[in-house]
Design goal:
273 residues
């Protein structure tokens, strides 16, 4: 049940905020004092080499895992105290593209969206529009089990978008897609932010996704947040004479050169310039 005492003031325009987030599994520390500041209306790429802690953070943000210590707020809600409310308000695309194999594509999407309370007519309109944009409207009456891996990924993405509110978390959104359809997915993600005002947090190993979409990035290395800032700032910091891809590779190798993470006070000062 909604409890207002778990809500903080969101006038600072942060849709996600973590403070000194730590997570231990036994004696192993996976996250080390991670403080994220993710603003509304951005496409935020959460990056890091394998084992850096990206999946652990996503699970904490969505209330699946509890942190060992620290605070985490999503849309003003204390996730540790009220995880069900957080999960009811955001869309989450995991790496697994799951569905009922003997159900038609349309029935898989409408079943999922009905469970989270989306009106059937509204969901049908959005489903047909999105699948049309993704050139998959001819798959609506095909059983999910007969779809290709990439097509199943699209179905999972579509039902996530329809079910989400202002915040969408996408884990490897274009995995398994051909080049043309991956471009269509990127166009839709961009429109969600630029035309609908939503916020997207994404994790991906596909550099074309990151370079084309990300406006901001947070980089993890060995459980620590070594950089947080805009795409231009990460290039300036790690590869001023090269491009975004080289900057990310350099950041993975070098880690934290100096304190590049901006506090909310820093952002307020910048806005006032």
């Amino acid at each position: 049940m909604y409890n207002p005492r778990y809500v903080i003031d969101m006038s600072n325009d942060l849709i996600i905020e973590t403070k000194n987030l730590c997570k231990n599994f036994g004696s192993k520390q996976i996250l080390k004092n991670v403080s994220l500041n993710i603003s509304k209306g951005c496409i935020y790429a959460l990056l890091g080499p394998n084992g850096a802690g990206k999946t652990t953070i996503i699970r904490i943000l969505t209330g699946i895992l509890k942190p060992t210590s620290g605070e985490v707020f999503v849309q003003g809600v204390d996730v540790v105290s009220n995880p069900e409310l957080v999960r009811s308000e955001i869309g989450i695309l995991s790496q697994l593209s799951a569905g009922y194999k003997d159900f038609k594509t349309r029935d898989n999407i409408l079943l999922f969206t009905s469970i989270v309370g989306v009106d059937k007519l509204e969901a049908t309109i959005d489903m047909e529009k999105l699948l049309g944009l993704l050139e998959m409207e001819d798959k609506l009456d095909l059983n999910f089990g007969k779809l290709s891996g990439g097509e199943k990924r699209v179905v999972s993405l579509v039902r996530t978008i329809i079910s989400s509110g202002d915040l969408i978390i996408l884990d490897e959104p274009t995995t398994g897609l051909d080049i043309a359809r991956a471009k269509l997915v990127r166009d839709i993600i961009r429109d969600l932010v630029e035309k609908e005002g939503r916020t997207v947090v994404m994790s991906s190993h596909i550099i074309s996704d990151l370079e084309d979409l990300a406006t901001h990035t947070g980089i993890l290395k060995d459980g620590e947040l070594v950089f947080e800032g805009t795409k231009g700032e990460v290039i300036q910091t790690y590869a001023p004479d090269s491009d975004f891809e080289e900057a990310i590779i350099s950041a993975f190798k070098i880690g934290k050169q100096f304190n590049t993470t901006k506090t909310q006070e820093d952002l307020v000062v910048e806005e006032g310039k």
